[in-house]
Write a structure and sequence with these properties.
This is Mannosylfructose-phosphate synthase. By secondary structure, this protein is an alpha/beta fold. The protein is built from 14 helices and 13 strands. Strand 8, helix 8 and strand 9 form a beta-alpha-beta unit.
Length: 371
């Protein structure tokens, strides 16, 4: 039996963010007797998915973090990696404009298939210092030169990274729909385990970064709490390093109504707990948690900056960020109660089920080597 083809995915780290979850969902569902995933990460610390990757037959390689001040050393280490690992014929990079550096090095080392994958409509500009903006702009102008194939999670994300006149394939951020069926009995059990059985639960799933707009989430919830004293805010994700969120909660005096779950391997259960999903991001490539929330049948309120491709059901309502927190709170309270039913079949019809998408990507990889 032939050994599987090994695809090298390049990411910042294998944490619990949207890109990492998307990759792992594909990895779990792809035929691993034909295709195996390895990961090149840029963090020394252990990633959330590292153990699972090893169990599935993959490998995790680590190089130094990308730093503007140490760019020469980074490029040297990257080149040494490709010189050492000549087994790769396909490199699939997920680090926005910085994929240029990865794919340039891959090209120099004669790797024939070099994929850049855009997952956002900016380069985390909210987290960057102003001096990086010209560099990001320059990298966007040259990203296509070492790239043989271009993927994006939405049209908007593709146009941002590759340009409006470039061809790229939109790869749906598909989910394992079987995990998101709404079950009232399970919902009650999950609420009971969190001691919020008789509460109105407003939820959010995110990585606690600035683009997620947590100050506005807190303000909206604070307005809801004024009208519904039984309300709880459920925040799912790694909050440990975000002191600003904790300070904002304290400033609003809502400490007793906010629940941090931390990182969860069963995020699908947290959607069961929620009554409303709140997602006022400044910008998103697509927002995979919005796909998951729609699948589970939640009422969702999201900012109108998010690409329209994410609108798969009637349960999602876009609202302008120019509107006040009071306005958002009023729209949310107006929407409840409602008869909740999951949207699994609708999500499948729209092409966001992982089984179908894993097969397509598997076929794409195999055809690359046969062409």
């Amino acid at each position: 039996m032939k050994d599987p083809i090994r695809i090298l995915h390049v990411v910042t780290q294998m944490g619990a963010g949207g890109i990492e979850n998307m990759l792992m969902t594909i990895y779990r569902n792809i035929d691993r007797s034909k295709i195996q995933f390895d990961f090149l990460v840029q963090r020394e610390e252990k990633g959330f998915f590292d153990d699972e990757i090893l169990l599935l037959g993959g490998r995790v390689f680590k190089i130094m973090p990308l730093s503007i001040s140490k760019l020469f050393a980074y490029r040297k280490q990257l080149n040494n990696f490709f010189v050492t690992h000549k087994e790769y014929k396909i490199v699939h990079s997920h680090i926005s404009v910085w994929s240029y550096l990865i794919l340039k090095s891959a090209k120099r080392n004669n790797i024939p298939a070099r994929i850049a994958h855009s997952h956002e409509t900016h380069d985390s500009i909210w987290d960057h210092k102003l001096y990086r903006v010209p560099l990001i702009y320059c990298l966007r102008q040259i990203i296509n030169s070492p790239t043989t194939h271009r993927f994006a999670c939405s049209t908007k994300a593709g146009e941002w990274l590759f340009g409006k006149n470039k061809d790229f394939a939109v790869v749906n951020n598909a989910i394992d729909t079987s995990l998101f069926s709404y079950d009232q009995k399970n919902a009650e059990q999950q609420k009971s385990s969190l001691n919020i059985y008789n509460s109105l639960v407003i939820g959010h799933v995110g990585n606690f970064s600035k683009p997620k707009n947590y100050p506005f989430i807190l303000k909206v919830f604070s307005e809801i709490l004024k009208k519904r004293v039984d309300a709880k805010l459920l925040l799912v994700g790694d909050y440990k390093n975000n002191l600003n969120v904790k300070e904002g909660i304290k400033a609003l005096g809502i400490e007793n109504a906010v629940i941090f779950t931390g990182l969860r391997s069963d995020v699908y259960n947290m959607y069961q707990v929620m009554d409303v999903f709140l997602f006022p991001s400044h910008n998103e490539g697509l927002g995979i948690s919005l796909i998951e929330a729609q699948a589970s049948g939640l009422k969702i309120f999201a900012s109108d900056t998010i690409p329209n491709e994410v609108l798969l059901t009637n349960d999602l309502e876009f609202l302008p960020l120019t509107k006040t927190a009071e306005y958002w709170a009023a729209r949310i309270l107006f929407s409840i109660p409602y008869d909740r039913k999951d949207n699994i079949e609708k999500i499948k019809v729209k092409g966001y089920d992982i089984k179908e998408n894993a097969c397509k990507l598997e076929e794409f990889y195999l055809n690359l080597l046969n062409s």
